[in-house]
Write a structure and sequence with these properties.
The chain has about 150 residues and is mainly β. It is built from 1 helix and 8 strands; from the N terminus they run αββββββββ. It has one helix at about 1-15, and strands spanning about 25-35, 45-55, 60-70, 75-90, 90-105, 115-125, 130-135, 145-150. A hairpin with a 2-residue loop joins strand 6 (about 115-125) and strand 7. The radius of gyration is 21 Å and the shape is globular. The termini are far apart.
Amino acid sequence: MLRRLALAAGILAFTPAAAEEPRTQVWLNPGMLSQHFKHDQDYRETNYGLGLEVFPQPEHGLIAGSLINSNHERSRYVGYLWRPLQLPEKRVTYSAGLAFAVIDGYSNTRDGRAFPIALPTLSVEYGRLGAHLILIPHPKNASAIALQLRLRVW
């Protein structure tokens, strides 16, 4: 009996732990694709760039990045993504919340200087792949909906 327990303990000691997801997750994104509700303007709808997201918990994430915005100008952003609504399924997780950020680079808003934004966000994650669907309201210019594809690197 003692030998069996020792053998079981030895096997467990050298067996890799179950494939648990790391608590903190790090995601990269290549910018976003946007669709504006006004079609009479020359808005750029392929907003390439590089973004970083760090989620110490599924509901709380820090976001930062840079992209070419819809006005064909460089924007930089930093913020917090709060996703209080979490619906984990077997292999897919759905979530919803708000992104609170500061962004710059829009010459038609504060002459390109930084300004705060709050954006409703729906997210879906499947393994290392994910996506955000983001509503971008703008009272003066065209509001838009954006799709941001994501890749988890940690």
